[in-house]
Write a structure and sequence with these properties.
By secondary structure, the protein is of the alpha/beta class. It has helices at 13-16, 23-36, 43-51, 56-69, 77-92, 101-112, 123-130, and strands at 7-11, 37-41, 71-72, 115-119, 135-138. It has a five-stranded parallel sheet with strand order 3-2-1-4-5, with helices on both faces.
Length: 146
């Protein structure tokens, strides 16, 4: 696969945060990075990671990693419309409050950019059930780490 043909994978913090503690998660990210896709972040995933910082130095380390390692998917006005559509679909499926606003924003960004969300968070499955245009994938099988 050439670089132009590689799939985009928007990495959610639920998966990225497990890289340091799980060899299985690290290996899964390495496989995606090495062969099958381009790892991506956006303003929401970066801010989720920044929220977990424990010091100004930790914050700078996180920002450096996210801006240096991941391809950044920019926010776009079309994402606003997708957020509203996804939330309506969640309500229509009986899951109105089942996904946080950050997860819905990440999902909308992925759909807009034709990316797959890499995660370790059941909320993305619920969003995909309600809004099938979302492609999502557990970074490792559900329940296999932690």
């Amino acid at each position: 696969m050439t670089a132009a043909n590689l799939a985009l994978y928007l990495a959610d913090h639920s998966a990225v945060s497990r890289i340091q503690t799980s060899p299985e998660v690290r290996a899964a990210f390495d496989r995606v990075n090495a062969a099958v896709g381009v790892l991506c972040a956006n303003a929401v995933t970066l801010d989720e990671a920044c929220y977990s910082a424990r010091s100004p130095e930790d914050l700078e380390r996180i920002i450096t990693i996210y801006t240096g390692v991941f391809r950044f998917l920019l926010m776009d006005p079309a994402i606003d419309r997708l957020v509203r559509t996804i939330r309506r679909q969640l309500w229509a499926c009986g899951h109105g409050r089942s996904a946080q606003s950050t997860d819905v924003l990440i999902a909308a960004t992925a759909v807009h950019n034709d990316a797959t969300v890499l995660h370790y968070d059941r909320h993305f499955e619920l969003i995909a059930d309600a809004f099938p245009a979302l492609r999502q994938r557990w970074i490792v099988p559900r329940g296999s780490v932690d």
